[in-house]
Hints:
Blueprint lengths: L1 H19 L4 H16 L2 H11 L8 E3 L2 E3 L3 E3 L10 H6 L4 E7 L12 E4 L4 E4 L8 H14 L6 E6 L10 H12 L5 E5 L14 H16 L7 E5 L5 H13 L4 E4 L13 H7 L3 E4 L3 H15 L5 E4 L5 H9 L4 E4 L1 H6 L3 H8 L1
Parallel strand pairs: 3-4, 3-13, 4-7, 7-8, 8-9, 9-10, 10-12, 12-13
Antiparallel strand pairs: 1-2, 5-6, 6-11
Amino acid sequence: MRLQTYLCGAMMYRLLRTVLFYFPPEAVHYFSMNWMKRFCSISWIKKWLQQTYGVTNPALAKKVFGLSFSNPVGLGAGFDKNALYLHELEVLGFGAVEIGTVTPLAQDGNPKPRLFRLPKDRALINRMGFNNDGADVIASRVAAWRTQNPNSKLIVGGNIGKNKITANEDAWKDYQICFEKLFDVVDYFVVNVSSPNTPGLRALQDKDALHTILSNLQKINATKNTPKPLLLKIAPDLTDAQLDDIIALSTELQLDGLVATNTTIDRRGLYTNEEKIEAIGMGGLSGKPLTNRSTDVVRYLAKGLNGQIPIIASGGIFTEEDASNKLNAGATLVQVWTGFVYEGPAIVKNICSKL
């Protein structure tokens, strides 16, 4: 009976996805999640969703950088930027949700359209530009969610960045502001210097710039009664020499983890018509085209770090095989994003049921 329910749900999602793909991606994102919020407000529908898509196997639990994850599958930053859907995402089985990227001040991001589907490649291109409600509003929202859900096991990460108007030489100040405002409400932090959609941001992956940002945050962290895990998210487009710098810096500053990887600016090997790609223009590519490269980066980092620092793998994870490949390459946890869009609400259960 449960298998029949699952198969029916999978077929329904494929049909629904076909319809939704006729509409603008960003509008569909909020439309779908707002309906999910409505469904979860009805007790019997919420119970059905939990039974169908939830993950309850205690054997999947993992303790990483001092935190207890109910399962190793998380949702990457950028999906729930403003912490609007934490309860609903927990119902769908996610062991962790990374909110953000959060900036000190609210900002609109880049002009629309800024999110594009590439169905032939099972990919997305986005140039959102850190659109978010700002650190104060988001911190209050997460605090309210925690008050309303005191027994939740969901791990919430805070992905932090700088405002577009902030010069790179002052970027460390923005990261400090976000760190301090979110400190009491998130479980861990991810420093995002690898998005291709904020002008000049990736220049902060330079070793000296990174050292300034991360060392300052670690100094503040050390003054806290209970320091929060501090992670760094990196791009898939770094050279081996740049990855070596990341490895050295991570060890020197005693980072708690790395997230590998963000989206790529590489457009090689796509099945989508070249004219369409050129018409879309700038942005970070995510999804299946990133699968192999992100796995290679995870493997390189894991070898260089010799298991000293945990890695969260992100990039092109759609199936249990994709997740297993990342874990076998040296990752401890995985994050999905584009795979969630294409595979639907069963993605966490599908991965976890076969791990």
